[in-house]
Write a structure and sequence with these properties.
Chain lengths: ~325, ~325
DNA sequence: CTGAAAGCGCTTACAG
DNA sequence: CTGAAAGCGCTTACAG
């Protein structure tokens, strides 16, 4: 039975519960001798403070809320890994909240705040700009520290951790342009995500700069659906370069191309984003932008711990480096 | 500001806080008229009960602990999706705990219990049998409801939700045997997981039944590492059938085989487990056992809610159906 | 149907 | 350095 309370410990150690509490929270304020006695009893009884009671009394729950839209996306899961590792280091617990399409973001956020989390990590990247302002207002009104992870919002006051997706989009497009590709498509999602908007912006900038016509083809994240889209695509479009906003989309496109006997990378170069296992397991292997997803999770969690313990943190907007992993699906 | 407390509501509505509490928890005990008045004030003030205070007073936190070992595995992430959806339906919050290799399971479990969760969902499938007994004892001693999800333990008293992995392993092996394959390998993980043990058992049973020699080849989950293992494999082994305990392992094996000009499925049939996106995105597409991972998560969460609200639940061991999805990597 | 009061298990000024 | 006491924001018998 590990349901001993602080009273049991105090009684067994012959001290008041205030002293037990101090041993746990401010050990330096307790005389060495009594401290040892209390610690001994704590160990003997297997006492672990009830975190709920502690949360109520101290108004700190050492719990952070993680807001996501879809756990099953590989990048989200990996970010969670980074978050979880750092949270563990800092002794924070994680409460997971999933925002579904039919739910009101603001409402959920208020619920999360009612759960008394000490801070919020927002991984959802599907907010439109005015929505972001509303969200930001909620956080600020409730004075709750927050960080946007893997989300790019231009507002300088919003704490965020991401890579420069615009630049990455630009660079990967430039790579193909430098290899004399003219009909380069960006394969994006029908649903708008802030990060994909950035990739599109970078792609567009590179194309216009080279005097080429930017062409964005929107499809679904569902493999069965985009298979159809891509087959239709090939029947009426000329293409010698394609960039998928996700590896899985790029691989799916590459498979259709090869089913149709298109030479990759000879006649068609393909690249993806995220450098997931899909890029390694495809044939040919896929050139991809490596996004340090785990690090984004870890760094944003660390930033959040700073914000939770201090009012002025110097650098609240962190851009992590990315790089292009060149593989068989491109020539250069 | 949504930091109104129950006192504020009581004051504004001209009732005692006990009444406000009843409106929230036992509305039928409050006269229609006062109830409406209170609800109106609640809405006006944007009052949301502090769940921590409620948790302390009621000794129920409406929070469940989810124990996992690795979020980044696709099956874990998808299970989390199912868990999250059902938890949301039943108004439970989710606290996520990751058990890392260097950590003591029992110790973590005690921590989780100190967090006052109402129940625990255990997705970690790496426990050896005697470890399971210890874990079970902790749960029982602390009288905390628990469910093992996607884990197969034979103890009839342990609540669990899974598929019959032994049978699945048997069936997929039988499929290849029926197609006259003789040298069928099971590609398993070096690390032992309870579910993989079951797959191995089913595979072995089918092989022995057919008078064939079972051969288990153990490799890593890391694509770069198993690439080397598989190249070594082909240099000295005869093989005409291979079953990967995960799709990604099967696809990796298939890629190496094809790099070495082995005809798949002509000379070599390959199948995987889990029917993930990997199976769809590979070329040839991969035959795989469809494991209803989302459902396992959802059903185990539902079972947990039952266990949390009642002492005797009739069916605490649930086996979900699976089926084989035949694709290009096998002939039959 | 409603209110006054005790209590959930802690933390934290305040005294001493 | 330590203890007595108030308080965190709720719930829940117990009266009435």
């Amino acid at each position: 039975m590990s349901n001993a309370t602080i009273y049991d410990v105090a009684g067994a150690a012959g001290v008041s519960l205030a002293t037990v509490s101090r041993v746990l929270n401010n050990p330096e304020k307790v005389k060495e001798e009594t401290r040892q006695r209390v610690l001994k009893v704590i160990k003997e009884l297997g006492y672990r403070p009830n975190v709920i009671a502690r949360g109520l009394a101290s108004r700190k729950t050492t719990t952070v809320g993680i807001v996501i839209s879809d756990v099953t996306r590989a990048s989200v899961a990996e970010m969670l890994g980074g978050i979880s590792d750092i949270a563990h280091n800092y002794k924070y617990s994680i409460k997971l909240f999933t925002i579904r399409e039919d739910m009101d973001v603001i409402d959920i956020l208020k619920d999360i705040i009612a759960e008394q989390v000490d801070g919020i990590l927002y991984l959802n990247d599907e907010l439109s700009t005015n929505r972001v302002e509303e969200v930001e207002k909620i956080f600020i009104d409730n004075q709750i520290p927050f960080v946007f992870a893997n989300v790019v919002y231009d507002d300088e006051k919003v704490p965020m951790v991401s890579i420069d997706y615009e630049k990455a989009g630009y660079e990967i497009t430039k790579l193909m342009i430098d290899d004399d590709r003219k009909d380069i498509y960006l394969l994006s999602t029908a649903r708008r995500y802030s990060v994909n908007d950035k990739k599109e912006a970078g792609y567009t900038r590179a194309m216009l700069e080279a005097g080429l016509q930017p062409r964005i083809f929107r499809t679904s994240g569902d493999t069965n659906i985009n298979r159809q889209h891509f087959n239709a695509f090939f029947s009426d479009k000329k293409v010698d370069g394609a960039i998928g906003v996700r590896d899985s989309i790029a691989v799916s496109f590459m498979n259709i191309a090869r089913d149709r006997k298109v030479d990759v990378p000879g006649k068609l170069e393909i690249a993806g984003f995220q450098n997931t296992k899909y890029a390694l397991l495809s044939r040919p292997t896929l050139t991809s932008i490596d996004v340090p997803v785990y690090d984004i999770g870890a760094v944003s969690m660390r930033l959040l711990t700073k914000l939770m313990s201090s009012n002025d943190v110097d650098n609240i907007r962190i851009i992590l480096p990315h790089y292009i992993v060149k593989r068989e699906s491109t020539k250069i």
